[in-house]
Amino acid sequence: MILRKIMLSILMFTFVSGSALAADADKAKKQAETKKAAQTALERFYKAKPELKGQVAKAPGYAVFTTFGISFVIGGAGGSGIAHDNASKKVTYMSMAQASAGAQIGAAQTETLIIFKSGKALAQFVDKGWEFGGGGAVEAGAGGKTAGLADAGGENVIADSVYYTLTKNGVQIGGAVAGTKFWKNSDLN
Description:
Blueprint: H1 2-48, H2 51-58, E1 61-85, E2 91-116, H3 119-127, E3 130-142, E4 145-148, E5 156-158, E6 161-184
Antiparallel strand pairs: 1-2, 2-6, 3-4, 3-6, 5-6
């Protein structure tokens, strides 16, 4: 009876330890995938607009997101990315969701680069992360190449930062009012 309890305890400990190690390995894998996607997106931005590399290096911090969205009058998008503090080198893993309504149609995978002009703007973005805006664009992308008005040539200013968007794959046409929320990914931080 005692031997049975000891064996059961060892088995339970092994199962719990193994589950914790698997969760840590999964978390590390997802972190690595998110960092790799962010680095790949940065390289695309630098290729489209080379001066961005210097702006990112000099900034207090930046954020990079890869998202996928679908729209037909109403739309939605979601994705993930990182916020990087250039001073401390700290990476914060983040998620993003967007809802929109307007004269719009399309489906696209996009990448967003946000360059912060102050440490306060970066901290506020990481802690609160709201953005609200509207606009119109005709953009398309395939094979990682963007064409249209919303390519990396367009600069948008919000909350003491500038942001750029590239359409990686897909087509988006129209104008809409959109609400976007960025937040810390509690599973990856």
